[in-house]
Amino acid sequence: MKVYLFICLLAACATFLYTPIVRHVAIRVGAVGEVRARDVHTVPTPRMGGVGMLCGFLTAMFFASRLNFLQGVFRDNHQAYIVMAGAALICLLGVCDDIWDLDWMLKLAGQLLISVFVAWGGLQIITLPIGSLVTASPTISIAITALLIVVSINAVNFVDGLDGLAAGIVAIGGVAFGIYSYILARSAPSYASMATLVDVAMVGICLGFLLHNWHPAKLFMGDSGSMLLGYLITCASIIMTGRIDPATVNASIYLPAFMPILLPILVLFLPVLDMMMAICRRLSKGQSPMHPDRMHLHHRMLRIGHSVRGAVLILWGWAALIAFGSLMLLFFRPIHVLVVFLAAAIALAVATMYPTIRRRMNGEAEEPPEERDADRSEHARGGGWYRARHMRDIASPSDPESSSTAGERRGSRRND
């Protein structure tokens, strides 16, 4: 456990140190642009934060490969190198989108190619631990693995709409998943686990980046970051889930036979829910599934009256409830878990609807959505002093271009 905590701390510190450098590079290359009507932020903000996260992840993995405790997981197979290569490729694709705003079909094609490459390299779901083992053919394994990676990548991408939201949700899910994978690893002769290693390094880069991305954010993770996080949490899940034999795991630990499949789904429940709602909503209107709008869960939170920080904290609470609620089934009786889960869900529901409840109790009229969105957007950035400070940072005399020029080169956007 101490080794994993060290790797997590190392990844956090490395990401925290790399991120300011990446911010400067993002400004230089023009990964900054004008604010669009559907954006929550009101000032041009650099993107490409995923590059700093990737550097932090690779740094942590490099040090892990030099530790005696973890050398075996690097020596036994080449999964670690496949994961790192795929992380670099998916981050590079995100960087291209952060700078040039790629067409969604081109970006999806790139995600599929990278996912197939990773699956073909050996990171596959070989078995499905539902009661008894179900072995799939290599072709089906590659297809299922690639599809799962693409869905997770876009789920995290869709939920990345507020400062710190995506990084916090993935970190919370990563902690829950890391605890479970560590418990499973303890049942093996060696505690060393590639799934746990990837997971704790991912949690570390989320924590390190949050120090720069907490509202008001100095840098956005961009597609380079959101796609990287979706990719890493899926890789950790596949490494652990795809090769588990339920017969080899102690029944007291492996409580529900389907937990290895259930937990990864619940860890990304909010991002996947938001993505599915967005796709259904857009298709029902005859629009493309990737057509942008202001109807994501985080937009709805702002619309009913929450501040940016309040909305993020409440959504973090829902993510933690779902992820850790399922994990508690491993340690406590289901009826006890259910009672605590329902009590926490009621408290979060009240917190979620509190602005609406307060207005109705005070007899206040409902504010028009357009006016409320404008007020919320201005409040989100703290008024004129924040705008002036960021405009000085981005359009400083040392920069060759002004922020208006950078805005013409590329439209700044929050991920859908």
From TrEMBL:
Keywords tagged on the record: Cell membrane, Magnesium, Membrane, Metal-binding, Transferase, Transmembrane, Transmembrane helix
Protein origin, superkingdom: Bacteria
InterPro entries reported in the protein's UniProt record: Glycosyl_transferase_4 (IPR000715)
Membrane topology: Multi-pass membrane protein
CDD domains per the UniProt record, alphabetical: GT_WecA_like
GO MF term (any one): phosphotransferase activity, for other substituted phosphate groups
Regions that span the bilayer: 50-69, 81-100, 112-133, 140-159, 165-184, 191-211, 253-273, 310-332, 338-357
UniProt feature, compositional bias: Basic and acidic residues: 371-381, 407-416
Protein name in the entry: UDP-N-acetylmuramyl pentapeptide phosphotransferase
Organism encoding this protein: Bifidobacterium castoris
